From TrEMBL:
It holds the Pfam family Acetyltransf_1. Keywords: Transferase. Residues 16-38 are annotated as: Disordered. This is Acetyltransferase. InterPro entries: Acyl_CoA_acyltransferase, GNAT_dom. It comes from the Bacteria.
Length: 264
């Protein structure tokens, strides 16, 4: 794969050409910035910025004013190839808090995924209603140690408004949810997104993450997507490499909490 060309294609389609990810959300081009403003429980943030050293601080301040005036905590999702090189430091100076850096990884859907190799007694089910999404949220709460209620609301919004754009999958053992993930299928894009992939502690190390990747990659291929992409944590990166994924760049979210202070 020509990774530089794929990265440029990713930027054009999913950042510069981003579409709203759910009802009540809008994507706006504000000078050198592409941002999404949505409901309180939705994803709010900056998807793309083409900044230089002379305008970066003023543009950052303008985005803070936009989102705080709407009462929205928001995320500035940066990538390792973004400019200026000190963008992260500028965001921190403006009141943003960095979260963990992940690796944007990609592979072609045509690449073999291998068998799902589920442990005995485990089955994967797609969930499409409130009860099923509540089980996905329960797994995420346990797996990631934080409240995932807003995620559940976003998935339900997608399922109600555009069900062809999301697949939510839960792994069950004896009727109990033990792992969960979702697949985003943005319209008119070559890239399907793998998100979640959380497993409760006692079920880790048994191949569930790998099985969920393979399951979702097959769906993406069947829907005509050329690539699957994932923001990979350090724990996931070795597994994904073995499944044929390659690194495009890094990505770090910077979060600005409502009430963190006015922009200068």
């Amino acid at each position: 794969m020509d990774l530089t060309a794929i990265r440029d294609q990713y930027d054009r389609q999913l950042r510069l050409g981003a579409r709203p990810d759910g009802p009540g959300a809008r994507v706006e081009h504000d000078g050198p910035v592409v941002r999404q403003t949505g409901p309180v429980h939705g994803w709010n943030g900056v998807l793309w910025s083409g900044l230089g050293p002379d305008d970066a601080d003023a543009v950052i301040a303008a985005q803070i004013r936009h989102f705080t005036s709407a009462g929205r905590t928001f995320e500035w999702k940066t990538y390792g190839h973004d400019h200026p090189a000190d963008l992260g430091a500028r965001l921190v100076s403006a009141g943003f808090v960095p979260e963990d850096t992940e690796t944007l990884m990609v592979r072609e859907t045509a690449a073999p995924s291998g068998p799902e190799d589920l442990p005995d007694g485990v089955e994967l089910r797609e969930v499409t209603d409130a009860a099923g999404v509540a089980l996905l949220v329960r797994v995420h709460d346990l797996a990631f140690g934080k409240d995932s209620a807003d995620l559940g609301r976003r998935v339900l919004d997608q399922l109600a408004d555009a069900p062809d754009t999301v697949v939510a999958v839960v792994a069950f053992h004896d009727g109990e949810p033990v792992s969960a993930a979702r697949l985003d299928l943005p319209p008119d894009s070559d890239f399907a997104g793998l998100y979640g992939g959380g497993t409760v502690e006692e079920w880790r190390g048994r191949g569930l993450y790998r099985a969920l990747v393979a399951y979702r990659a097959r769906i993406a291929a069947a829907r005509g997507y050329r690539y699957v992409q994932v923001d990979a944590a350090d724990t996931s990166r070795p597994i994904l490499r073995r499944l044929g994924f390659e690194a495009l760049t890094t990505t770090t979210p910077y979060v600005y909490e409502v009430g963190a202070g006015p922009a200068a």
